[in-house]
Amino acid sequence: MLIINQSLLYKASSIAVLIALILFILDITDTDDRIWEIIHEQTTDESIKERSVWLPNYSANITGLAIPGIQKNASGITYNHDKQTLWIVVNNPTYLIELDLQLNKVRRVDMYNFKDTEAISYVGDDYYLITDERDQAITLAKIEDETKLLNKDDLQQVVLNIHGYSNKGLEGIAVDSHTNTIYAVRERDPMILVKVTGFIENENRINIENVEEIDVDGLYLDDFSGLDFDHNSGHLLFLSDESKLLVEVDLQGNKISYLDLEKGFNNLDQSIPQAEGVVLDDRGNLYIVSEPNLLYRFEKNKD
After folding, report:
1. Could you say which of 115, 131, 187, 196 is the most buried, measured as most Cβ atoms within 10 Å of its Cβ?
2. What are the b/e assignments for 155-169, b being 16+ CB within 10 Å?
3. What is the pLDDT of residues 199-253, one digit of tens each?
4. Contacts 24+ apart (CB under 8 A), 154-161
5. What is the pTM assigned to this prediction?
6. Quick one: which H or E segment has residue 80?
7. Is 162 helix (H, G, I), strand (E, B) or coil?
């Protein structure tokens, strides 16, 4: 009887080792991610896909482009839908670069008295929101054709004072320009999503609160490195550098779709090294900026 038990134990141990080996191979080859994405795509209702961004339909058509005028520390990106240009914010030193949609440099705007600029979002009528990570501050700045310098001390600001380490502060910002609601994310320790109202309108009362409908821990991301708001669907796009993932979430907290930023997915020949900012333009193109100075563009498949 003892011999039989030992034999069964040996077989069970061998099976357990084999299963662990298979799971390890699936993980390091990202096969588990591919299987999960196929299942998610096949089981999602077509009506949901039609009224969402639906990230699985995107594939990269520009990868690892060195951004003109930037050598290092590219931190965030936004799209000016009035002039159809892209704006990229840089920290240390702090400045902005404007690009046309052919990704040529249009101009540079220097920034004074900003400390650690991590994100930028276009509001409309030449107004932009810029975050300062360590100060946990959001600045509203007007950038016109003749603007060459922004001095933070001359601009309207709000400090969020969300708890955590100062060097793990505001990493992403997005605006619903229809309601003037600002969404902002803290990188980690802890990860936080807040919304701000009353600031853009320069009201006496500014309201800052956590977005309770969205469970940020339930997104299963290791950090937040960027944020965008899609006006067509009303959904948020959460970017994670450490997880190498972009996640589409509706305002009720439902996870809608995913874009894997690793090599072999979505026409990427190499993983995006350090994704720091994300934005959609009005043509449906998706842009991701990565440190030190790289730009990626994804276009929606036409099928």
Report:
1. 131
2. eeebebebeeeeebb
3. 999 877 899 999 999 999 999 999 999 999 999 999 999 999 999 999 999 999 9
4. 156/199, 156/202, 158/196, 158/199, 158/206, 158/208, 159/135, 160/136, 160/184, 160/194, 160/196, 160/208, 161/136
5. 0.87
6. strand 74-80
7. coil
